[in-house]
Design goal:
Length: 354
């Protein structure tokens, strides 16, 4: 298991997973890192998936008992050649088999239950008197509206060994809830695990600009990568670019709103890794990158910390903000110090966000 833990300015940075919970508390380390804990969770999952009645079909459309409920569609695996007794623990085949079992056992069912809860939530009207501050006698319905759209995309690396392991992680019940809308495999396969309009638990505690609940306004994309020294594959980046292209256009997401988990959760997260090709993404219009041939000397009164803040970084601890900035935009040098060259990059990027 790859739960990378790095000391960084006395804070702790962990891999993407297992700290992304909406229940995360700002300022607290969300590192799990315990291999034993992970093993335990997997054992629980195995146990649950192996329940004899685990694949009992669920009645259709009864998730909430509401007439408006969306009908449950059972999971159908296309993998028919599995011989579980011969599968070695921890292999991609092992995780795929387990994930299929979990999807049949309960993941799909929980998905539909949650969707139906959301339908109930957005079906409430002022007539239901949820809000006591509304004291008019009548509800006059406005007629022009639709559903809120994501405005950010947060990129992550999985710190896991295979995309199958990640599919498993997001399928299994966990103490700490984690999820993402998309997972991009090393071979370029793109999995969508959640509808774009629902709030997933990928970003956790953090701050970007004045946004402190990134899960509420973003899509999370997990890119399968061990988070150590593994380069992202060309197939993976090509697939990611296609996905970003679709999402950016569909939801009118601003170029500068495609950022890394490490940008949002400074000092707590370090994904995607310094090997992530941000420059290549920026060339295609996803996220900003500096102009290497047009780096100007910042003015004499240039305030680097203010520049970081203008870009969006949380500057509560300026050193941590500097490191997060360098992790993304300098990459080959992530020290705590801003060199003159770094300041030119910072100034250049700041002007793009201004
Ligand atoms: Zn992450």
């Amino acid at each position: 298991m790859h739960h990378k833990i790095i000391s960084l300015a006395s804070l702790v940075v962990a891999c993407c997973f297992l700290g992304c919970s909406s229940k995360s508390v700002a300022g607290k380390s969300n590192v799990l890192g315990s291999g034993a804990g992970e093993q335990r969770k997997e054992a629980d999952a195995r146990q649950q998936a192996d329940q004899p009645n685990a694949q009992t079909p669920v009645e259709q459309g009864t998730a909430t008992g509401n007439k408006k409920a969306v009908a449950y569609k059972p999971f159908v695996s296309k993998n028919t050649r599995w011989t579980p007794e011969h599968l070695a623990y921890g292999t991609p085949q092992y995780y795929l088999y387990k994930t299929d079992s979990l999807q049949k056992a309960y993941s799909r069912r929980i998905y539909y239950e949650n969707i139906n809860k959301i339908i109930d939530q957005i079906s409430e009207t002022p007539d239901d008197k949820q809000n006591l501050a509304v004291n008019a006698d009548n509800w006059y319905a406005a007629i022009d509206f639709n559903i809120r759209k994501p405005q950010f995309i947060i990129l992550h690396h999985t710190s896991q060994n295979s995309v199958e392991q990640t599919l498993f992680t997001f399928s299994v019940r966990k103490e700490r809830e984690t999820s993402a809308h998309y997972v991009v495999g090393r071979d370029g396969t793109v999995y969508q695990m959640l509808n774009d309009y629902v709030r997933s638990y990928h970003a956790g505690a953090g701050k970007w600009g004045n946004i402190v609940d990134m899960n509420s306004c973003s899509l999370g994309i997990e890119i399968d990568n061990d988070g150590e020294n593994e380069t992202f594959t060309p197939e993976q980046i090509d697939a990611l670019l296609k996905l970003l292209s679709y999402l950016k256009e569909k939801y009118s997401i601003p170029t500068g709103n495609i950022i890394g988990h490490s940008d949002y959760a400074v000092g707590r997260k370090d994904d995607p890794s310094v090997l992530f090709p941000w420059a290549q993404l920026a060339k295609e219009g996803f996220g900003f990158w500096y102009d290497p041939n047009n780096l100007k000397q910042p003015p004499a009164d240039f305030d680097p910390v203010l520049a970081l803040r203008i870009i969006g970084y949380n500057i509560d601890d300026p050193v941590v903000a500097i490191q997060a900035f360098k992790h993304h935009f300098v990459q080959n040098n992530v020290s705590k110090i801003l060199t003159d060259a770094d300041k030119k990059i910072l100034y250049n990027i700041m002007l793009k966000y201004k």
